[in-house]
Write a structure and sequence with these properties.
By secondary structure, the protein is of the alpha/beta class. The protein folds into two domains: about 140 residues, P-loop containing nucleotide triphosphate hydrolases (Rossmann fold), CATH 3.40.50.300; about 60 residues, no CATH class. Helices cover about 30% and strands about 20% of the residues. The chain contains six helices and eleven strands. α3 packs parallel to α4. It is elongated, with a radius of gyration of 19 Å. The protein binds adenosine-5'-diphosphate and ligand LXEULUCI. Adenosine-5'-diphosphate (ADP) binds next to α1.
C-alpha cells in the first residue's frame, strides 16, 4: 500500500541526502519517480546535499498542482510510482492535500522531506499539514548538535552570529559561518533557543566572564 511519509529534522540533519538516496534506491529497482523541490539553496529546480550530491528537480511554485500534473503525466502513458518532495515545508497546505490524494487514489508513494518549524519555533503551514496527514513521520536519525553538545532540535536565524526573532518566515539560507554579516542559520537545543544563545554569543559571554574573574 502506498504511503505519505514525512521525513523531518532540523536544518543540516541529512534530509536532502536521504531524499537523493531514496530516489537512487527506488530507481535502481526499476521504479519510476519524480523529484520536486522548492527554494533549494543551490538554485531553482535543484536538490542539493551538503555531502556534495546535487541533481535536477522540478521546481514547485505557487501554481503547482500535483494532482493535475501527475494525472496528466499518467494520462500521457508515463509511469509515476513515487515522488520525492524536498523542502516540503515551503509547499502550501493545498499542495500537501494533493500529495495525500495521489497516495490514496493513484497508489503513488510520496516521500516528503522538510523542517517542521521556523526560526521562531512556529510550524510552517506545509509541515503542519504534513504532520496532520502523513501515514508516518520519521525523524532523521543522524543527530545534529547544538554548540553545547546537546541534540539540536530547533533552527535559529542569525545576523552577525546573533539570533533574531523578527522577519519573514521564508529566507533561503545556510547554516554558518556564524560570524557572517548576512542572514545565516544555526541549529540549537531548545534551552539555548529559548535563551537566544548562539555559539557566538556563548563565546562572547564566556570571554566577558573570564575578563571579570
Ligand atoms: N564534509 C562532510 N563530511 C561528512 N558529512 C558531512 C560533511 N558535510 C556535511 N555532512 C553531513 O551532511 C549533513 C547535512 O546533509 P543535508 O542533506 O545537506 O542536510 P539537510 O537537507 O537536512 O539540511 C550534515 O549533518 C552531516 O551529517
Ligand atoms: C529555520 C528557517 C529556515 N528557512 C530556510 C533556510 C533553508 O533555505 C531552508 C532549510 O533547508 P535545509 O535543507 O533543511 O537546510 O529553509 C527559512 O526560510 N525560514 C526559517 O525560519
Amino acid at each position: 500500500m502506498a504511503e505519505l511519509v514525512f521525513f523531518s529534522g532540523t536544518m543540516d540533519s541529512g534530509k536532502s541526502t536521504l531524499a537523493l538516496q531514496t530516489d537512487h534506491n527506488y530507481r535502481a529497482r526499476g521504479r519510476e519517480g519524480l523529484i520536486f523541490s522548492r527554494g533549494d539553496r543551490a538554485g531553482e529546480a535543484r536538490v542539493s546535499s551538503r555531502l556534495g550530491l546535487e541533481v535536477a528537480a522540478h521546481e514547485v511554485t505557487d501554481d503547482t498542482d500535483f494532482w493535475a500534473e501527475i494525472s496528466a503525466r499518467r494520462a500521457g502513458g508515463e509511469a509515476v510510482d513515487y515522488l520525492v518532495c524536498d523542502e516540503a515545508q515551503f509547499y502550501s497546505p493545498e499542495q500537501v492535500e494533493q500529495l495525500a490524494r495521489l497516495v490514496d487514489e493513484m497508489e503513488i508513494d510520496i516521500f516528503a522531506f522538510g523542517i517542521t518549524t521556523d526560526f521562531r519555533t512556529r510550524l510552517f503551514p506545509g509541515s503542519a499539514r504534513l504532520i496532520e496527514l502523513a501515514d508516518r513521520i520519521d525523524v532523521l536519525q543522524v543527530q545534529s548538535l547544538c554548540w553545547c553538545g546537546a541534540r539540536a532540535t530547533h533552527n535559529a536565524r542569525t545576523v552577525d552570529g546573533v539570533m533574531v526573532t523578527e522577519g519573514e518566515q521564508v529566507v533561503i539560507g545556510d547554516v554558518g559561518p556564524f560570524e557572517a554579516a548576512d542572514v545565516a542559520y544555526e541549529v540549537l537545543c531548545r534551552r539555548h533557543h529559548m535563551r537566544r544563545m548562539t555559539a557566538l554569543t556563548a563565546r562572547r559571554r564566556s570571554a566577558d566572564e573570564s575578563l571579570w574573574a
